[in-house]
Structure formats: structure tokens, C-alpha cells
Amino acid sequence: MLAKELERAIYNWYLTGENANPEPIFNVLADGYENELQMLVPIETPNIMLQLMGNPENLKPGDTFTAGEDIGISFRHLVVNEDGGYFIPLFTCQEEIDRGEPTSVINQPIKALFDVADSWTKCLGFVINPWGQQFVLEKDIIHMLKEYERRAFISIIRGSVLDAHVAAIVNAANTSLLGGGGVDGAIHRAAGPKLLEECRRLHGCRTGEAKSTGAYNITTADNIIHTAGPIYSGTPEDSRQLAACYLNSLEQSFENGNDSIVFPCISTGVYGYPIEEAAYIALTAIAQWLEEHEGILKNVYICCYRDEEYEAYRRLVERGDNGVR
Ligand code: APR
Hey, is 77 helix, strand or coil? Predict the structure, then answer.
């Protein structure tokens, strides 16, 4: 799952464009350093293996060979300058490898790679998924990652919740959970009819509550978390109910084992919640939950579909008055 989270964080980094924060990627890499994130590393096929395998036409999946002696493994290099400086390519999955030339690979925990990199004098670092959306890890970044103090990161990005690659997408639903317009309509259209079938079995949800389903045709996500925001009425109850949407959605993501989550700006569309107020309530509730659940969730994204939403969040973050980095 960590390799999937790494792909998601890199994807969202490209989605966000220039000035994107790399912290969501560092969060996953630092977690992977401690928790055995395995990467696929291309190697030069050792001669002894070529002799053992014999005629490639006779090979079939699952064949095994036992070498009578140590086979020297050497990682493939991406040479980048005339005095032989090179990067070592690392891949998160076979699909990323298949974008380039076929190669032998071995699995390596990222901790072993980070720890040995300093002993290779001409090695400049690693490139993750070099043939696709690559992410370069120079040695100074690797040194930083070994000491990196992981803490969940909140990213404010422009666009639809369907644009981000995350484990859980939050839907601004209504209490029936049977679909509607806005982001609710967009999510149901993208997920397909099986989402509505599962929602029917949930028998609705109260305002402020959150319930999870599968993501179906939204293959980049693992879950949809449906929550019903308050219809703005200008009473103090509004802010309590809106905060509950964020807190309960985060609780659901914790129960689902989601490592990343994206929120739309709940209640600020059809339900008429003033955006500036809603943004403050959202950021404060999310920051509060993350403080109370240190190290649980990694990456939180808030997708702003309209410019006024994005401006409201940017003003709040620039003012820094709600604990968000
Ligand atoms: N993708 C992502 N975000 C969207 C999209 C979309 N296609 N359409 C709207 N949004 C954004 C809006 O800009 C707003 O910031 O989602 C946020 C919430 O707006 P609404 O979707 O209107 O949701 P809300 O205000 O919470 O009202 C919920 O609307 O769609 C119905 O069934 C839903 O009855 C419920 C009510």
C-alpha cells in the first residue's frame, strides 16, 4: 500500500503544479524508510543467470534456478554527466517499469537503498519512476528523509475532488445518500451505478455524520466517504455540524485504513455556507483531528472547485491562524 500512496503523492504533486509542496511525498518516503517500503530496482542480468536460464525461448513463468555460487548483482545506472555521475532508477510497480525497456529487477527496501547510497561516491541519488511522473531524490534529500519528522500535511489544491489521487474521496452528500447535483452528482457519475446500490443499503445519514462505501469505477481511490453538511441557517449549530462532517469523515478514513483523503468545500455550494467561514471551520477541524491522531493519517487535500474557494483557503493559510503549515 505504501508504494500506491507514493504514486498518489507524486501524482498530486504534479497535479498541483509549480510551487507544489513535496511534503506529502516526503511523508510517504519517511514512513516507507521506517516501514519497509519495497521498491523495484533494475539490475544488469548477471552472466551466471544467463547461463543457468539457457535458451530464453525455453523459459516459462515460474521457472526457478539455483546458482552454485554468489551471483554479483549490479544496479542499472542513469548516467547524467561526463565524469560518470549517475542516478539509480527505482520503480513503484511493474507498470512503471513497462513504460521503458524490459529489464531484470530485484525488490529492495528503501531503507537499505538510502543507507548504502553514501558509499557509492559517483551516485547522485535515486529517480523514482523515471519513465513517467518521476521524482528525483538527491543525496541531501535522502539525508533529510532519514531524520524527517513525519506529520500529516494539508494541501490546498485547485480543481475537482475527482482530479486528486487519494485513498478516500469525501462526498458532500445529502442525508438521503441517494445522490444529487454538485460534487455528489460528479462522484456518482464517475463511480457508476454500483455506488448508488451500496448507498441505498446505508439508509441515509444524519447531518454531520459520515459513512463509507467502495469507490467502484473511480479506480484511483479505495473509498468514498459520504457526509451531509448543514444547510446554512446562520445559527451556531451550523458550525458544529459542519465541523462534525470533517471530524467524522477523518474518523471514517482512520477506520478504513486510508492514508490520504481529499475534501470538497462541504456545504458551500447548494447549501449556501459562506465560504470564508466554512473554510476556517474546515481547516480548524482537520488540524484539530490531526493533532489528536499524531502519525495516523499522512496526506490531506482540500480541492477548491471555484476560485473564490481557493482564495478563501489561501487567505486563511497565509494568515496562519488555524495551525496549518
Ligand atoms: N467536483 C468537485 N467539486 C465540486 C463539483 C465537482 N463536479 N461541483 C461542485 N463542487 C464543489 C462546489 O464548488 C462546492 O465547493 O463542491 C462544494 C460543495 O458544493 P455542493 O456540491 O453544492 O454541495 P453542498 O453545498 O454541500 O450541498 C449538498 O447539493 O449536490 C447536492 O446532493 C447534494 O443535496 C446535496 C447538496
Answer: coil
